[in-house]
Amino acid sequence: MSNHPGSVEPRERCVVRYALERHAAERPDAVFAVSDDGRRWTFAETLRRVEETAAGLQQLGVEQGEPVLLMLPNTLDAVCCLFAINHLGAICVPVNPAYKGRLLEHVVHNSGASLAIVHPDVVAELVSIERSALTTVVVPGTAALPAGLDRLRVLGAESLMADRTSLRPLQRPIEPWDTQSIIYTSGTTGPSKGVLSSYMHSYSATGPDAWCHLRDDDRHLIHMPLFHIGGAFMCYMAVYRGASIAVVRGFRTESFWRTVDELEVTVVFLLGAMASFLLKQAPQADDRSHGLRMVFIVPLGASSPQFRERFGVDVCTIFNMTEISTPLRSELNPEKPNCCGRPRPGVTVRLVDENDCEVPRGEPGELVIRTEQPWAMNHGYNANPEATAQAWRNGWFHTGDVFVTDEQGDFYFVDRRKDMIRRRGENISAFELESELIRHPAVREAAAIGVPSRFGEDEVMAVLALQPGQSLAPEELLAFLAERLPHFMLPRYVRTMPALPHTETAKIRKQQLREQGVTPDTWDRELAGVRVRAQRFN
What is the Cα–Cα distance from 432 to 191, expressed in whole angstroms? Predict the structure, then answer.
């Protein structure tokens, strides 16, 4: 931490460009990044590739402070692009490559980006978006491209490679308070919001006060996608600390421990559902024969002691979201189920009612946060001053999540105030799903809700009221949605009612639907044997 709580960290500690240059100069041959395709990059090699990519972006017209869309699956090359954008002092906008239709259109328009680096499968979706600032699309590993590209300049991977000596100096130094990224978090009462994050924000979210149990020689498994803070911020954290990363396409239960061994992983972040998947595998004689020393499990379930005992690792947990900087953390091996820990140094938290008045201990309230250091959390939502003002009202950031505390000062998550569904690590906007449901001509009104999953988190349920005289088979609805939404947003459950319950102000009573849950007349696509093909980016 810096010497004064009201100041920011020095540039060489919390700005990606300067931190990477420092480590490359001090220990050039130390391994920084490995991947499941056999590549190993030292700090010096990483810096060289980042500078070459940055030079290529600069020649394409990317300037300091400009947003650049990044829509790639997890690879070392994607991490290189992430760092190269920031190397220029430009703003990285990582987006789920599965986005399509109006979800993608909103992100493109809101970001204002003129250049995008995307997977080949995304190009056709971008071409269909009208009246955007986007002019140039770079496609690493260019395959056959769709017709109608006259409106966009589409370039291959070679455009991202240039002589590093051609890299022009920055207009000014990159500062800790400069915007580093815009990461979109699912909308709840409207379209997704682009969270403005500074370098100081990403540093604070993963710094020594927040992730205090880490060592600088740890190797972190990057299996969470780069369009989540669980992927992007962990890559940044490794650069800040001089640690290393192991980049893989995603979490796979059946190959997890083999990946840990082959890539020499020492620390991993697991969603609660992932930990559950690993525990449900049949016990093996070599369950403790690995190099993993620590697992962060979020949320922390009742089975964490069992996980620790079976696999011989230390366990801890945190509470975080895209907008904030890990305000709650636990000690090693907490025993209380569903506990999120206590406030870390440098943050002040309160639990408040709907009027922002603090609630008594033991009563539920919304978690609101302040930090001692400036720029240690988000600095608003991109091009959305109304949402920014609402979230930051009365000088506190409002998380929208409800907690209670016990007599020892530990915090426990109760529920989400926001109307958001979380399914296996993906945040799903009910508003955006409902917007697509209602587009089907047979649907009169629709509600999207989360119902409990046996793996933790939620399963997606669509509750429909149809137009008079209309019928709609669930299989037909899924086929309709599959053309418009990424696979993870497709509902598992579909229930049709004569009419949806409403409040006196004509709002759908979603809580009533949640309480009813999966009713006998609810269609279940897993029981029906209907498979949804997940889009793979190879």
Answer: 7
- Helix, strand, coil shares of the chain as percentages rounded to 5? 30, 25, 45
CB 332 within 8 A of CB 314: yes
SS3 523: strand
| Helix or strand holding residue 447 (H, E) | strand 443-452
The tokens describing 263, both together, are 């890539």
3-state class (DSSP) for residue 414: strand
What does residue 157 show for φ and ψ, rounded to 5 degrees? Answer: -60, -30
Segment 399-427 mean pLDDT: 85
Cis peptide before 299 (omega within 30 of 0): yes
pLDDT at 484 over 60: yes
SS (H, E, C) 317-356: CEECCCCCCCCEECCCCCCCCCEEEEECCCEEEEEECCCC
Tell me the pTM. 0.87
In eight-state DSSP terms, residue 425 is T
Instruction: Give the 3-state secondary structure of 450-513.
Output: EEECCCCCEEEEEEEEECCCCCCCHHHHHHHHHCCCCHHHCCCEEEEECCCCECCCCCECHHHH
Q: pLDDT-based confidence at 188, cuts 50/70/90?
A: very low
Mean model confidence pLDDT for the chain: 92
Closest residue by Cα to residue 139 from 155, 161, 159, 127: 155
Q: Which residue matches tokens 């001089």?
A: 242
Q: Give the separation between CA 228 and CA 429, rounded to whole angstroms.
A: 15
**Distance, CA of 272 to CA of 258 (rounded, Å):** 20
* pLDDT tens readout for residues 193-207: 999 999 999 999 999
Please state the φ and ψ torsions of residue 44, each to the nearest 5 degrees: -65, -45
Q: In sequence order, which residues have a C-beta less than 8 Å from that of residue 18 and are 6 or more positions away?
A: 11, 12, 174
Residues 393-400: what's their mean pLDDT? Answer: 96
